[in-house]
């Protein structure tokens, strides 16, 4: 398959990352560049042109999903400087609607890619970034810890096909948002 007219390099990279995400969710890190190429409707050579190796692609994919979640949270930030506003956005980005499916997918994907060089370090840096940003959010260390771990726990359950029921997710969101209330 040749280059599609009108699609630039960034569009092709996005196409490859989206295809890689689907392939890794289905097959884990044992997926090949050929699998990604087929899913993207490209040749293996086109994938290699943009990502020099499977490891380079897995690292780019891990970076992409961590950055996307961060953007999702930032997009939900309330105005002002009230304590807990980042934690509330984190909760909404994770538990509103069917967002827990995305959390589960992200956590499953990062776990599947953890053995690829650089991915574990990237995930550790992302965790440290969240820890630091949430520490500046004005909540107690206990509240921050409960929020992050509860969201990750529900996400992991979802990633393993054990998605909590809707009423459980609503109750979890309510409890976690309560931890962000002033004077808590």
Describe it.
This protein has 184 residues and is mostly helical. 71% of the residues lie in helices and 0% in strands. It has 9 helices and no strands. The protein has helices spanning 9-27, 33-40, 44-50, 54-75, 85-95, 99-113, 119-135, 141-159, 166-178. The termini are far apart.
Extended strand count: 0
Instruction: Please work out how many helical segments DSSP would assign.
Output: 9
Helix residue percentage: over 70%
Could you report the average pLDDT, rounded to the nearest whole number?
93
Radius of gyration: 18 Å
SS-derived structural category: mainly alpha
In this structure, how is the largest beta sheet organized? none
Shape: elongated
Uncertain stretches of 5 or more adjacent residues: none
- Separation, N- and C-terminal Cα atoms: 59 Å
Strand-residue fraction?
A: under 5%
Order of helices and strands: HHHHHHHHH
